[in-house]
Records
---
Amino acid sequence: MPEQAYQRGLMWLRNDLRIADNTALYRAGKACNAVAAIYIACPQTWASHGDGDRVVAMRLRSLRQLQVALAKKHIPLFFLELAEFTDVPAALAQIVEKLQVGALFANAEYPVNELHRDQAVRRRLKQLGVPVEYATDRTLIPPGSLTTGSGGGFKVFTPFKRAFIARHDNSGDAFAPLPSLRTRHPDCAEVWPEWIAVAGSNNLVRTIPETVGDYGVAPGGHNRVLDWPVGEAAGTRALKAFAELVDDYDRWRDFPAQKNTSRLSPYLNCGAVSVRQCVAMAVAENGGRWAGPSEGATTWLSELLWREFYQHLVVNFPRVCRNKPFKPETENVPWSNREEDFERWCEGKTGVPIVDAAMRQLNQTGWMHNRLRMVVASFLTKNLLTDWRKGERYFMQQLVDADFAANNGGWQWAASTGTDAAPYFRVFNPYSQSRRFDPEGAFIRRYLPELASLPSKEIHCPAVQPASGQSPSGDLFSPVDYPAPICDVTDSRKRAIEVFASLKS
Ligand SMILES: Cc1cc2nc3c(=O)[nH]c(=O)nc-3n(C[C@H](O)[C@H](O)[C@H](O)COP(=O)(O)OP(=O)(O)OC[C@H]3O[C@@H](n4cnc5c(N)ncnc54)[C@H](O)[C@@H]3O)c2cc1C
């Protein structure tokens, strides 16, 4: 698009809530004289996607900070609440007409409903002669653009990663963040009204609400989202802080008691930080390379490629967006789906300390360490033989970093219904994981205060302690208010393997 091609342009913000290195915003700034931004909340669609209070609060609060920062660039931010994605094309058509907008800019999103929404918007605005430009920004390269030798999408992570790195000659140069967005002349802010009426919905306004739809108003709604400082500045600070730790990432990333991972996922998900900014930090530590001298940076870059891989997967294999397993044969797993098991898992009352501590971390903070996400997902789907979709949905509702692609990918990986080589007979033993990655029980103690007094040796698998304070042999010990394990991990592992093996035959 030529520079200053339009008098007025509209930037449609979604999960890209930042100014720096925002591709669509940058292009809007180049192509238009006056730029306004819009955010459209669709709480009914969000609820149908399973989005929870925390992730929505993260969006709304980040948006408020972004509004202030954009105003300093003389770019007003408008807000509109609609019920569903399907309401968006008609509303945007009215808005671009009333605001006399020459072009609409947005960063592409990839799950099926988002793609359909965006195609419908493009068709509708085309009728008005208003072009819509969707940019690649959430991913490093456009999903679908990296293919196997036979032209299909990659189904396994390692070959995907190898092909990605080879395509870029092991260099991070292609992903340098964009130059800063130019501040517009103050007069450019004057051309926009304070609000406009939009038929069939609320008005388009400049106030970002605390709550939308039923979000944030339900009794018992979470307020612990404040554990996460929100906004672009907070995301940038977190990235800078992690740059000091990245060298050691490979050594410590699996130990949940320590804060050795970046904890950038909530910022990457709402877009307060861009994936290119993350890559730029890590390749700089790594001598400009993807795979290079720093083991820590190389391993972390590989995690960013897991993120990329799952984003590509939803485009290459959209059936995963339709509640379907990636491996069709696993549709027939005879899940036991015992409601009581699921409830105890959700509440962190399974009697398996590492699982319970992890679930309480999730319930209390909205975040869970990656190693523990794998452990609890394996425990639910294999040991408790509960449909992965129940766990996937619970995570979506609780996580402050809830992201469809990463969450669905992670759950299907753990349940052996998904991509990659996680063979069905690999079932995490929660007790060995606990002894290996939380050797002193520091993480367990933090989230299960009822076990805090136990010695490190016992904390991973405490002897069942009857309320009377007497063991079955009659010895006295202080009673601990903690349930007996929900299942025998050896027997339940065997059962899961038999079930999956029978699908094969
Ligand atoms: C069952 C399950 C569910 C998950 N659900 C989500 C989710 O809803 N949202 C989410 O962002 N991540 C999810 N993950 C991936 C991973 O657990 C988190 O991204 C990670 O724990 C976030 O912590 P961090 O930012 O400190 O990660 P770091 O270790 O610092 O990694 C940096 C970034 O790389 C990306 N990343 C790292 N590991 C993975 C991975 N395995 N898959 C995809 N991306 C990855 C994330 O964007 C992360 O922020 C899930 C994993 C599992 C096993």
Note: Residues 471-478 have pLDDT under 50 and may be disordered.
---
Amino acid sequence: MKTLIIIRPDSVLRGLVGEILTRFEKHGIRIAGLKVMQLDKEIAGRLYEIHKGKPFYDSLLNTMIESPVVIAVLDTDVLDNQSAIALVRRIVGATDPSKAEMGTIRGDFGLRIDMNIIHASDSVEAAAREIPIFFRKEELVKYKC
Ligand SMILES: Nc1nc2c(ncn2[C@@H]2O[C@H](COP(=O)(O)OP(=O)(O)OP(=O)(O)O)[C@@H](O)[C@H]2O)c(=O)[nH]1
Ligand SMILES: [Mg+2]
């Protein structure tokens, strides 16, 4: 399985990249692709197209483009697609950091719903749509064991 995470601009500026990637690695989840990128409105809009028209849409895009993000494709062969994506979302925690459990990334580091540290694909379909926005196939590695 493969899924996408994006470490948001404010988290990168806070120096949380290593800590966040470590949390996935500790669960045996591997990094299949990794890049630092400055997003623009067009690409951030493609990522969050399902939220177009919502009151927070414009500010969401603005927070995603204010400085560079770190984008990773995460991979594990141990779990089926759905379980793997559910595990990644459990490690990430609830959308609103004030409701996220302590021990999750958002529970431990998040400040507000618009400063919630990280994006993670929420379904197999979302991962399949989101990964190609940021990575070409040949930029992703496969692990043999
Ligand atoms: N200001 C504000 N931002 C929101 C609200 N709901 C969601 N967001 C932001 O929009 C992003 C996408 O929302 P959702 O897709 O519903 O939540 P999510 O799947 O947990 O978050 P992502 O992993 O970023 O997609 C969230 O990460 C928040 O930053 C809201 O009610 N107010
Ligand atoms: Mg979402």
Note: The chain has a mean pLDDT of 96.
